[in-house]
Amino acid sequence: MSEVYETIGYVVLGFFSVMCLTKIAKCSLRDYFAANAMQGLLSSDVNAPLETFAKQSYKVADAMMKAREA
Fold first, then answer.
1. pLDDT tens string for the chain (70 positions)?
2. I need a labelling partner for 19 at 20 to 30 A (CA). Which of 27, 32, 37, 48 fits?
């Protein structure tokens, strides 16, 4: 049964990511990149303050934005 809830969770996260990308939630592309980076960072076994994950997520997003310019 937990597999069903996990699948539903991925669908919901995907839906909200698409909402963010299409500006329904008024997010920038940088915010979208950071949100996706944060998902990966939070899935790690690292035990750190949430502010650390937020800062790291935006560092990843900034690197992605810079790579787009190249």
1. 455 445 555 555 565 666 655 556 677 889 889 988 998 998 888 888 989 999 999 999 999 999 999 7
2. 48
